[in-house]
Amino acid sequence: MTADRTGPSTTAARGVAAEADFATALDVAAAIAALSPSSHNCQPWAVAWARTTAARAATARALAPPALTGPAASPTEVPVHPVHLVLALDNRRRLRALPALHVEMLVSCGAYWRLLLRALAAQGWGADGLRLAPGGLLEPPGEAWPWPGPGPANWPRSLAPLCVARLRYDAGDAARAEDLPALRATAGARRTHRAPYRPEPLAPDLLERLEGERPAGGIAVRHLTTDADRAALADFVARHAGRDFSHGPAWRETHSYLRFSEADAVARGDGFTLGELFGPLSWPHERALRSALAPATMRALRHVGYPRLLARQLAAVVRPTPALTVMSLTGTRPPTLADGVRAGARVADYWLYATGEGLVLHPISAVLQHEAPRRLLEDRFRIKGRAFFLSRIGRPATEFPAFPRSHRRSAGAALRTI
Ligand SMILES: Cc1cc2nc3c(=O)[nH]c(=O)nc-3n(C[C@H](O)[C@H](O)[C@H](O)COP(=O)(O)O)c2cc1C
Q: Given a cut of 80, is residue 400 above it in pLDDT?
């Protein structure tokens, strides 16, 4: 969190104490949430803590009944000083080359938000009011929501609000909440694992637990495990993933997230190095790959089938994987922005649960990013609703992954006060 932490003071001593405690809890939670996965590791999220009187009033209004969810305070309860947070999509950080990437931005923000709220709840700060922005899944979030009028004076114009939450501290909740060190450890252990997986099938009861109640909250989770389905999915990737590599704007955007030195990756704290994507590389191999992946080369090599070759390489990694996860939106038709944020929460819970069970994931989004292949995939594999997440899932073939870890911006970079 930045220096404006000292911001406006409240008159009630109790309120001041609550604010100081919350500031600490928020820093702890943000450090955990920063470990969230995001498409291209672009980390498109921002969170604002409403501290000025005007900002608090505006966020409280956004939560006003009847939109208020969660248990209502009983008349005998002592009112506890609430705090208000706003999750936003940072438009300066979002991917924009394809319409479907907007869904990935909502999913990434939703995953971060879920981890943040879980880490806050683990410290006793539970959300008792939550409201998601209106609008369609593919529409840019409305500028006006949730502020009637101009909104808080210092609301950054680059941030599009996605969700408002009211949180209260409850010592009883803190005692009952999930274990914070365990959550931190699992969030730290989770990573995208692009190397080979052990070929043995995953236990059906484990897959069932991962699927949860079907379909919960308008989100269905399906596992493709039969030999026929897995082979068909690998063929599908070989046939269709090349489209993503040969799409000029999409590839240029992906390429802008490649970091060609460790120093650059550390300094920027986002994107991915070639080592993260392809594993350990000799220096000549890295140089060759670097030129082959350059947008100009990709444009030229497109005519000699290079994107298809990359797609076949991806399919070769997919083929021996014991299971594939497909998540889809099955609720509102057409799906909404709120569905996209909730989908991210489901991805976060799923991925963390899988990590706790010793499993690893590797999303394969290339075949979901274009409308035609996505629809074909939904038809071919009888997916209910709109597919938004496709991933390999399994156990790592080697215990110590040779692929290096991804980088992050400092946790405080995503936080601000309004
Ligand atoms: C919605 C979404 C889509 C993703 N799609 C892909 C993908 O197609 N290929 C891939 O290798 N990684 C994909 N990833 C993984 C990210 O690249 C990864 O989360 C990010 O680089 C950070 O690395 P980490 O997960 O190891 O912390 C995706 C992640 C998310 C959240």
A: no
**Residues 10, 12, 18, 24: is their CA dihedral positive or negative?**
positive
How high is the pLDDT of residue 254?
A: 95
Q: Which CATH class is domain 204-394?
A: alpha beta
Interatomic CA distance for residues 166 and 366, integer angstroms: 37
Distance CA 159, CA 87 (A): 9
CA of 39 to the centre of ligand 1 (A): 5
Ligand 1 atom with minimal separation from the 193 CA: 26
Task: Indicate the pairing of strand 386-394 with strand 323-329.
Answer: antiparallel
Q: What are phi and psi of 82, to 5 degrees?
A: -85, 160
- CA–centroid distance, 374 to ligand 1, in Å, is 18
Considering only CA atoms, which residue is closest to atom 23 of ligand 1?
406
Q: Which of 32, 35, 36, 38 gets mutated to test ligand 1 (max ligand atoms within 8 A of its CB)? A: 38
**How far away, in angstroms, is 191 Cα from ligand 1 center?**
9
Q: Which residues line ligand 1 (CB under 6 A)?
A: 37-41, 104, 107-108, 191-192, 194, 272, 362-366, 406
Distance 278 CA to ligand 1 centre (A): 13
The Å distance, Cα 173 to ligand 1 centre, comes to 33
Domain boundaries, given as residue ranges, for the chain: 3-189+409-417, 204-394
pLDDT of residue 4: 36
Non-local CB neighbours of 95 within 8 Å, separated by 6+ positions: 39, 40, 42, 44, 101, 104, 105, 253
Is the CATH code 3.40.50 the one for domain 3-189+409-417?
no
pLDDT tens column, 329-388: 999 889 999 999 999 999 999 999 999 999 999 999 999 999 999 999 999 999 999 999
pLDDT grade, residue 11 (50/70/90)? Answer: very low
pLDDT tens string 252-304:
999 999 999 999 999 999 999 999 999 889 999 999 999 989 999 988 888 88
How confident is the model over 129-158, as pLDDT tens digits? 999 999 999 998 877 788 766 678 888 889
| Average pLDDT over the chain, rounded to an integer | 89
Of 365, 390, 408, the one to substitute when testing ligand 1's pocket (max ligand atoms within 8 A of C-beta) is 365
